[in-house]
Amino acid sequence: MTSIPGIQKTLIANRGEIAVRVTKTLRKLGIASASVVHPQDADSPAARAVDEPCTIEGDTPVSAYLDGNQIIAIARRIGADSLHPGYGFLAENADFAEAVMEAGICWIGPPPAAIRLMGDKIESRRFAAERGIPLTPSVNEEDDPKTFAKRAIEIGLPLLIKASAGGGGKGMQIVRSKRELGPAIELARSEAERYFADGRIFAERYLDQPRHVEVQILADGHGNVVHLGERDCSIQRRFQKLIEETPAPMMDDDLRSRICSQAVEVARAAQYQNAGTVEFVLAPDGEFYFLEMNTRLQVEHPVTEMVTGIDLVEEQLRIAAGQTLSFSQNEVRFDGVAIECRVCAEDPDQDFRPAVGRLLLVRPAEGEGLRFDGGIASGQEVSTAFDPMLAKVIAHGRDREEAIRRARRALRESVILGCTTNAAFLERILAHPDFAAGKVETGFIPAHAAELGTFELSPDRRTAILAIAALSNRDFLERVRAVPEPYASMGAWQN
Amino acid sequence: MGYDFELDGLASLVHPTFDLESTRALGTIALSIDGRRVEAALIPGSQSCEYFLDVHPDLDGIGGIDARGELDRRERVFVACDGDLVFVHLRGRTHRVEAINALVKAQKDAAPSSGDDALLAPMPGVVVDVAVTVGTEVEAGALLLTIESMKLQTAIVAPTAGRVVELGLSAGSSFEQGAVLVRLEGLDTEEGESR
Predict the structure, then answer these.
(1) What is the SS3 assignment for A30?
(2) Is a pLDDT exceeding 70 seen at residue B109?
(3) In this complex, do A465 and B90 lie within 8 Å of one another by their Cβ atoms?
(4) N or C end: fewer C-beta atoms under 10 angstroms in chain A?
(5) DSSP letter at A53?
C-alpha cells in the first residue's frame, strides 16, 4: 500500500540528478520506482537509485530519452501506473503527455492543453495580452514577415530576438544597434530551426539590467491554485541560470504580493494543474512583465522546498492522482532564505567551455542547512552528450547572510575531482559585495567579469599544489624509489 | 631527473633532491620546486582520496622562519590521478595539474612519424647499463637501458612492444639532450600501454 491511492509504481522518463530526486520522494511514499536508462548511464546513481532500471536504446543517448513510444512501451511492460517526466527531454511535450494518458498511464504533469498553450511563446504571450497581463512590447515575424525588421526597430533598442518555440537561452540574440538586427534575425532563425525544428521568431524589448523573477505555482484539479513564493534567478550565463534564491532579495512585500498574485492569475486563466512556474522580467523601476510559463518541475525547485518545507514532487503525485491540495494559500509558511548553485562541468576561465573527464571523486559537503542534489558518482564519465550540470548545491539559512555563508562553505567543501567545474567561480559570485547587497540582474556576470576572474595563486600555495602533484604521480615516485642507495645518501653530503 | 608539472598554464620543474636521507624512511621527500627546496609528505587519511599534506620549507636556506608563509603546516587535501592528470582539492579549491614526463615530451617533440619509436634523451647524461641488443624483441614496459642524469638513474622502458633496430650507445657513453638512445620498430601486435 502506498500513501497515494492509484499510484503504485512510477516510471521516471529522465536521468541524472532529477531522476535521483524524484526517486527519493517515491521511496518516501512507498511507491515502487522505475526509470529508463541508456547503457551509457548504466552505472549512474540514477540507475542505481530506482527499484527497476529499464534499458532504453537509441542512436544517441539523447535520442533514447526522447523516444516517447519506446518509453510508453516500457511503462506498459513493467506495469507502471504513472510516469514522471522530470524536466527537459519530454517534460513539455504535449503529444507525449497525451500518448501517456491514452495508454492508461497517469501523467504526473499538467494537462496537455496547458503544455501546448504555454509551450508556444507567441501563443502564450497572446493569451496573456488578452487577459491584461503586462508584457514587454514585442512583434511577431509571422504577422507580416516583410515588415518584421521595421516593426522590431519601432519597439526601440535594445531588442531581444527569440525563438517562438524556444527555451534554455537557445535561439536568443540581443540587438543593441540597427546594424546588428539583420544578422541576429538570421542567427535566431537558424538556431530555432536547429534546436526546435520551428523557425518562427519574434522580437521583444530588452530591458537593461533586468531581473529574472519567477513564481512557483501548485494547482489541483479542483480549482485550487496557490503560489509558493518567488525565486530570483538573475545570475545567468548565456541566458542560463547559475544561481537561484528565494525569497528574491531587495523586493518589498507589496511588489512580492503583486507578482505572486499575477502568477496565480495566469495559472488560473490557463486552467493549469500540477506544478508550474510563471516567469517575469523585473525592470529596475519595479515594473514587471510576463515572460513565459514553464509547465514542469524546475531545476531550481529545491530552494522553494527548503523555505516552505513542501515536497513539490509529492504534491505533483497527489495532484496527478486527483487529490485536493492539502493546504490553502494562508497555510503556506516561508522560513528563511535558500540559495541554489548549479555546479557545472565547464571552465569559467575559457568562456564557460564544457569540460569532460572521468569523475575520480564526488564527495558532497554535509552540514546544517545543506542539500546536495546530484546524479553523479566516482568513476562516471562526463561527456558532452548531456547538459553540463553535475549537481546542485543548495543552502538554507535563517537570513540571506547565513544562506550565503553556508552555500560558500558547501561549495568549498564539496569535492569533485576528475573534471573542471565552475564551483570556485560560483563561490566568487557569492562572495561579491554586490551579490551580498542583493544587487542582482541578468547582466551580473559580464558586468563583474573582471572581479570574478581567477586570482593568481600565491607562491606558497603553488608550491604546495606542485608538491602534492609530484608526490601522487606514480612515475615520479617510482623514479624516486628507484634511486640506488649510494646516490640517495650521497646527496646529504653534497648539500 | 626533473619533472615538469603544468598548473594554471604555467610549467614548473620539480625534482627530488635526496639531501635528507634520514627522512625518506618516514615518507618525507625532499623536493626542489622551481628551485625552491621543500620537504613534503602525503599521509593517507581515512576516506577515499583523502590525505594530509605536510610541507615544510627548507629552513636551512635563506629566510628562516619568515619564509614559512602558507607552508609549514599539516592540512587535509583530496587528491586523485587520472594518468598524467592530478586533481588536487586544497583549501576549498580544486586544481588540475598535468605531469609532463620529460622523456615522453622529448619523444613527442621529436615525433618521428615513420612508425619507428625513437627514444630520445630527455637531458644530457651517461648510460649506466644496456639491457638489450639490436634485434631483441621486447614487450611494452620492458627495460631497454638505464641512464643517469643529474644524479638520478632513470630506466628507459619500451613504450610499446617492438624490436630494437638501433642502439648507438654502450655503458659509460655520454649523450646530449635529444640524442637517440634506442630505436624500436613496432610489431604487428596490440599497442602496449606505457603508463
Answers:
(1) coil
(2) no
(3) yes
(4) N
(5) E
If you measure CA to CA, which chain B residue comes closest to A456?
B8
- Residue B152: pLDDT band by 50, 70, 90 thresholds? low
| Run of H or E residues at A320 | helix A312-320
Contact call for B38 and A463, based on CB within 8 A: yes
Residue A489: its pLDDT value, please? 42
Is the distance from CB of A359 to CB of A416 less than 8 angstroms? yes
pLDDT, one tens digit per residue, over B10-52 is 899 998 886 545 444 467 888 899 988 888 999 999 999 999 9
Is A200 a residue of the active site?
A: no
Report the residue count for chain B: 195
- Residue A172's pLDDT is 84
Bridge partner residues of B31 (DSSP): B16, B38
For A289, phi then psi, to 5°, come to -130, 140
By Cβ distance, the residue of B8, B40, B91 closest to A471 is B40
Measured in whole angstroms, the distance separating CA B5 from the mean position of its chain's CA atoms is: 10
Q: What is the ipTM of this complex?
A: 0.85
Interchain CB distance below 8 Å, B19 and A491: yes
Compute φ and ψ for A171, nearest 5 degrees. Answer: 75, 25
- Retrieve residue B146's grid coordinates: 638505464
Of A418, A421, A457, the CB nearest to B82: A418
Sign of CA dihedral A140, A141, A147, A153: positive
pLDDT digits (tens, 9 = 90+) for A332-362: 999 999 999 999 999 998 888 889 899 999 9
Q: Which of residues 108-147 of B touch A (CB under 8 A)?
A: none
- C-alpha span between A198 and A164 (Å, rounded): 8
* C-beta of residue B14 within 8 angstroms of C-beta of residue B32: yes
Strands A106-107 and A82-84: parallel
Helix (H) or strand (E) holding A435: helix A433-436
Amino acid at B44: P
Confidence category of residue A181, pLDDT binned at 50, 70, 90:
very high
Q: Which of A21, A211, A237, A296 is catalytic?
A: A296
Q: What are residue A363's DSSP bridge partners?
A: A415
Nearest to B153 among A427, A472, A484 (CB): A484
What are the tens digits of pLDDT across the range A36-92? 999 999 999 999 999 999 999 998 888 999 999 999 999 999 999 999 999 999 999
Q: Please, where are the H alpha helices in B28-153?
A: 102-110
Q: pLDDT-based confidence at A168, cuts 50/70/90?
A: low
Q: Which residues of B touch A461 (CB under 8 A)?
A: 70, 90-91
Instruction: Report the residue from A423, A427, A468 with minimal CB separation from B88.
Output: A468
pLDDT tens for each residue of B76-100: 999 999 988 999 999 999 999 999 8
Pairing assessment for the beta strands B125-130 and B137-138 based on DSSP bridges:
unpaired
Residues of B within 8 A of A462 (CB-CB) are 7, 12
Please tell me if residue B73 touches chain A, with a CB cutoff of 8 Å.
no
DSSP label at B71? -
Q: Tell me: cis bond preceding A145? Omega within 30 of 0 counts.
A: no
